[in-house]
Specification:
The chain is α+β, with helices and mostly antiparallel strands. It has one domain. Helices cover 33% and strands 10% of the residues. It is built from nine helices and five strands; from the N terminus they run E-H-H-H-H-H-H-H-E-E-H-H-E-E. Strands 1-5-4 form a three-stranded antiparallel β-sheet. A hairpin with a 6-residue loop joins strand 2 and strand 3. Helix 3 crosses helix 9. The longest helix is centred in the C-terminal third of the chain and has 14 residues. The termini are close together.
Length: 255
Amino acid sequence: MKTLRKTLSLVLAVVMVMSLVVFASAEETGVDNLADYKDKDAAKASEYAEAIDLNIGLGIIKGMSATEIGINGNLTRAQAAKITAYVSLGENVAEALAASETEFSDVPASQWASKYIAYCVSQGWIAGYGDGKYGPDDQLTGYQFAKTLLNALGYGFINYVDPQTGLPKTANRYVGTYWATEVSKDANLIGLFDGLTLSKMNGAITLAEAMQMVFNALQAGPLPGIALGYAPTQTTTTGTDAYGRAAYVWTEGGE
């Protein structure tokens, strides 16, 4: 179990900015807090400083190397899959996923994110390009990442009864010509874009912006019946943290 005293708006998630190398782990780097990074001053000065600080405090972000976070690097499709797996399962369960073959020719089992991509595809949260490729190193727009997170939170799906078979089925709402419009509606409804520049969501987003989005996602929480990898428990109504809010403990997997 990983328990850290944080705040109501604490988030887990997000990983580092590397495209062709396996992400380093906290155990490998020895890095487990913001002060250990060379670019800590840039992180502290960022408008997303709170989300960066708290995510690193949870030990989810390991950085692009043993000494750098790389908050200004653009998020990739592989990184987005890992983030989403962490949000859904928690660090321990997500890391325990086995390296897996995928349906994509550019994501062999040896690819560092293959297990996260395979898991998210199996849940219907992400998909490839339709030509047999996934594009793990391609950049992700804000709307595309929002779509992935909303799917993991349960907002992207509708349940219905097949009129021909009478059997229950599930369909994704974020498909077709107007998928981004539907994503935008739901994202704004739950505050997924809070603190972000909306006009930038059509373009590639940075690691820091992705961290803020995950921060917002965990504040909003999933639809009823869907469990996430981390859960908050209020431990005091009088003590406050550095941001003036009631102190909370976040536990992985609800332990």
